[in-house]
């Protein structure tokens, strides 16, 4: 089994790119792979606590919680990007990591594959 | 002990979105990545500006005065100061009417020794081919 590192910079609402990244992570974990998901820029919105489920928007918090339970999935917010958006540790969902950008590069270091989805 | 090469390929404009800024800040973060790695392991970043991304290299940006944010020019100089290789696509510069005197070529005033490399797109492709991972911004 391999390790996949995904970097995603797109927002939870207003784009389906983050939806794709989480579903790709889910598919990889189901196949037995390990996945690191790095969220930067507007992607850090995914870590915000208290998201509500509406039919017009992607709701990914539930999928993320289930993925975290597998032990094969790590999800980390860029600290600076999150703080710039008013998302502090206390505002972040349980299980999320909060690190600086070097964490992502370190994850890429030992990944078998890196899929980097930059901003729009 | 291994060195993994990461190519940061940037084709986004400097201020339309945050993307190109994040390319530089992520590449610069390579300076501290060792804290997460085994002794002797490291990453080797290379930044390549292609397409409209070459506009990130334009000199005399006024981002601090106008937007109140650090300019991409400053980020590029910081990258050079830290000895990160910065490549700028020659053909895309020509397409946009840019010449060497109009872009950031060094960071001498802050003590940088490395200079910007203006190279044909073929050379950038070679960098991509020899990289372990490509991060496309």
Offer a quick outline of the entry.
The complex is a heterodimer of chains A (120) and B (137). Chain A has 120 residues and is α/β, with parallel strands linked by helices.
Structure characterization notes:
The complex is a heterodimer of chains A (120) and B (137). Chain A is of the alpha/beta class and 120 residues long. Chain A has one domain (3-113): DsrEFH-like (Hypothetical Protein Ychn, Chain: A). Chain A is 31% helix and 22% strand. Chain A has a 5-stranded parallel beta sheet with strand order 4-3-2-1-5, with helices on both faces. In chain A, helix 3 links the parallel strand 3 (73-78) and strand 4 (97-99). In chain B, helix 1 (19-28) runs parallel beside helix 3 (72-81). Chain B is built from 5 helices and 5 strands; from the N terminus they run βαβααβαβαβ. Chain B has helices spanning 19-28, 63-66, 72-81, 90-95, 121-129; strands at 3-10, 42-49, 85-89, 117-119, 133-136. By secondary structure, chain B is α/β, with parallel strands linked by helices. Chain B has a single domain (3-136), classed as Hypothetical Protein Ychn, Chain: A (3-Layer(aba) Sandwich). In chain B, strands 4-3-2-1-5 form a 5-stranded parallel beta sheet. The model of chain B has no long low-confidence stretch (mean pLDDT 97). Helices cover 28% and strands 20% of the residues of chain B. Chain B is globular, with a radius of gyration of 15 Å. Chain A binds chain B through residues 7, 9, 40-41, 80-81, 100-106, 108-109, 111, 114, 116, 118-120, and chain B through 4, 6, 12, 17-19, 22-23, 25-26, 29-33, 35-37, 41, 43, 45, 133-137.
């Amino acid at each position: 089994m391999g390790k996949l590192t995904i970097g995603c910079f797109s927002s939870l609402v207003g784009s389906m790119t983050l939806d794709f990244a989480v579903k790709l992570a889910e598919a990889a974990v189901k196949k037995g792979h390990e996945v690191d998901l790095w969220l930067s820029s507007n992607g850090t919105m995914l870590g915000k606590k208290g998201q509500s489920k509406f039919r017009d928007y992607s709701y990914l918090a539930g999928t993320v919680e289930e993925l975290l339970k597998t032990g094969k999935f790590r999800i980390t917010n860029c600290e600076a990007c999150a703080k710039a958006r008013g998302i502090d540790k206390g505002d972040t969902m349980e299980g999320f990591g909060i690190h600086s950008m070097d964490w992502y590069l370190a994850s890429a270091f030992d990944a078998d594959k890196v899929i980097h989805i930059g901003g729009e | 002990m291994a060195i993994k090469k990461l190519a940061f390929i940037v084709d986004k404009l400097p201020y339309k979105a945050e993307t190109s800024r994040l390319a530089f800040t992520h590449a610069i973060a390579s300076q501290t990545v060792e804290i997460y790695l085994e002794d002797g392991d490291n990453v080797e970043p290379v930044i390549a500006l292609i397409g409209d991304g070459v506009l990130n290299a334009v000199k005399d940006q006024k981002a601090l005065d106008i937007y109140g944010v650090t300019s991409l020019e400053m980020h590029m100089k910081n990258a050079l100061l830290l000895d990160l290789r910065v490549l700028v696509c020659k053909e895309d510069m020509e397409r946009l009417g840019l010449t060497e005197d109009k872009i950031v070529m060094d960071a001498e005033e802050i003590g940088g020794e490395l200079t910007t490399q203006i190279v044909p797109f073929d050379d950038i492709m070679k960098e991509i081919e020899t990289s372990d991972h490509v991060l496309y911004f």
